[in-house]
DNA sequence: TCTGGGGTCCTAGGACCC
DNA sequence: TCTGGGGTCCTAGGACCC
């Protein structure tokens, strides 16, 4: 068996870099990009990081700092980021045969066997130079015998400028020297809670975790953490997934722009989320049988009583007709709705998926499919994607007050003709 | 006043069945 | 009367990722 070899290519400050691509006037100025509802910071340019602005900090807590340092603030513009991401991924796919798009701003490359015929280090340098040249976004490249080590290598490439954007961790001694320097919480798969518990056990660095006994780790934590230990030791537990796995659930949920306290508004919100979830379901060419609905108050307001409830239900047969899920969703909402709370967030989840034509009806199930369901849903999706107006259900409400805040949105430079940047 | 959204995987506990 | 143990399904929750 050929030993495996991976590279991780990760864009630098991706959302902030996308915003700056079209605003050369912002060169050198700190940039932050905000989450939905303009709630908290989800991306920072290098300058913003230097100001000490932390990831995920609520905006209102740093409002003064943003003003004082003249920080450029953007609402997140996913249409723009997705388009730039596609260009980066396409370029990588032209350079390497097997690419796994892991998230909007990073991809794993399968280099196994490739190292027999090409110079891996040169390939990494080519990627490092070509992506900024062609797309306008800078990247770092990490190389290692497992995904976890490639991640770690990438982390080092970002942290230490002397590496000039490429770190190659094929050598075991190099792996150990680096791991000794890296705190355990920087390891992929080790988050805040696990770090706390590992620290109590005296495990503080990546190397100490690598040297821990896998069996002990499994018994104390879980198989997931055990796998991480093995990966740190160069044992590959996670192959490249070139084709995105079929989704197992679809979630549509939002915090409200302002709190909801009446049933009618909540019914509209649930209908809206149901509508979006079904759109996604059809774009995945799937049919769902299960649905759950949840509502909750804000976990951050400790003065008022908290309420959080979810409930699942099931259709008799899988469907992707929005009307079926609107009916089910509303009845689930009825059961969990409690008057007298200031609701901050709600959502719907679809699950238990079937491909077209897979599901067998029970012998005595008496359900006639809706006539023309497919045609109607296709028409709905077509109109709504055409850019010429929208069709929606009356139950979604018109111009709801609880809708999302996006006050700092940049233009859709690359995906709407009317918003193309102008070169003077 | 103001704290994201969309995913995955794993585990524990209760109900129910044989 | 025998009240054990294993399997499955469901729900809820924890933890992680970007």
Indicate the topology.
Layout: E1 6-11, H1 14-21, E2 31-34, E3 41-44, H2 46-50, H3 63-68, E4 72-75, H4 78-95, E5 99-103, E6 106-110, H5 120-134, E7 139-144, H6 147-159, E8 166-168, H7 172-181, H8 192-200, H9 206-211, H10 214-220, H11 223-232, E9 249-260, H12 263-283, E10 287-297, E11 308-319, H13 322-336, E12 343-354, H14 373-385
Parallel strand pairs: 2-4, 7-8
Antiparallel strand pairs: 1-6, 1-7, 2-3, 5-6, 9-12, 10-11, 10-12
This protein binds a DNA duplex (18 and 18 nucleotides) through residues 34-40, 42, 56-61, 63, 76, 102-106, 188-194, 222-224, 245, 247-255, 258, 298-300, 310, 312, 344-345, 347, 405.
Task: Give a quick set of tags describing it.
424 residues; alpha+beta; 5-stranded mixed beta sheet; 14 helices; 37% helix; DNA-binding
Walk me through the structure.
This protein has 424 residues and is α+β, with helices and mostly antiparallel strands. It has helices at 14-21, 46-50, 63-68, 78-95, 120-134, 147-159, 172-181, 192-200, 206-211, 214-220, 223-232, 263-283, 322-336, 373-385; strands at 6-11, 31-34, 41-44, 72-75, 99-103, 106-110, 139-144, 166-168, 249-260, 287-297, 308-319, 343-354. The chain is globular and about 65 Å long. The protein binds a DNA duplex (18 and 18 nucleotides) through residues 34-40, 42, 56-61, 63, 76, 102-106, 188-194, 222-224, 245, 247-255, 258, 298-300, 310, 312, 344-345, 347, 405. Residues 6-191 form the UmuC domain.
């Amino acid at each position: 068996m050929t030993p495996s070899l991976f590279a991780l290519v990760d864009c630098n400050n991706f959302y902030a870099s996308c915003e700056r691509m079209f605003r050369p006037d912002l060169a050198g100025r700190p940039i932050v990009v905000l989450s939905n509802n303009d709630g908290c910071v989800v991306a920072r340019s290098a300058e913003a990081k230097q100001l000490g602005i932390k990831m995920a900090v609520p905006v209102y807590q740093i409002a003064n700092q943003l003003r004082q340092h003249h920080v450029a603030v953007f609402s997140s513009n996913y249409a723009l980021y997705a388009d730039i991401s596609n260009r980066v991924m396409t370029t990588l796919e032209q350079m390497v045969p097997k690419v796994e798009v892991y998230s909007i701003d990073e991809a794993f490359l399968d280099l196994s066997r490739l190292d027999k015929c090409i110079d891996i280090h040169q390939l990494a340098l080519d990627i490092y130079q070509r992506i900024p040249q062609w797309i306008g976004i800078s990247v770092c490249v990490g190389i290692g015998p497992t995904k976890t080590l490639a991640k770690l290598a990438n982390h080092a490439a970002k942290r230490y400028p002397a590496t000039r954007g490429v770190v190659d961790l094929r050598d075991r001694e190099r792996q150990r020297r680096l791991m000794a320097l890296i705190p355990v919480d920087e390891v992929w798969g080790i988050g805040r809670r696990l770090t706390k518990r590992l620290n109590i056990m005296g495990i503080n660095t990546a190397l100490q975790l690598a040297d821990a006994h896998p069996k002990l780790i499994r018994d104390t934590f879980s198989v997931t953490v055990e796998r991480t230990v093995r990966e740190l030791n160069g044992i590959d537990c996670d192959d490249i997934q070139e084709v995105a796995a079929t989704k197992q659930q679809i979630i549509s949920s939002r915090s409200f722009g302002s709190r909801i306290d009446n049933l009618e508004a909540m019914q509209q919100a649930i209908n809206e989320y149901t509508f979006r979830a079904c759109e996604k379901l059809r774009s995945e060419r799937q049919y769902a049988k299960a649905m759950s609905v949840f509502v909750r108050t804000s976990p951050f307001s400790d003065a008022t009583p908290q309420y959080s409830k979810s409930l699942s239900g099931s259709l008799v047969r899988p469907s992707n007709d929005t009307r079926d899920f609107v009916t089910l969703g509303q009845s689930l909402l009825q059961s969990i709705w409690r008057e007298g709370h200031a609701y901050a967030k709600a959502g719907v989840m679809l699950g238990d998926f079937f491909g077209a034509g897979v599901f067998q009806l029970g012998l005595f199930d008496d359900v006639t499919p809706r006539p023309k369901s497919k045609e109607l849903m296709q028409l709905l999706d077509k109109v709504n994607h055409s850019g010429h107006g929208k069709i929606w259900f009356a139950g979604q409400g018109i111009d709801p007050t609880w809708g999302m805040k996006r006050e700092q949105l940049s233009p859709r430079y690359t995906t709407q003709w009317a918003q193309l940047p102008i070169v003077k």
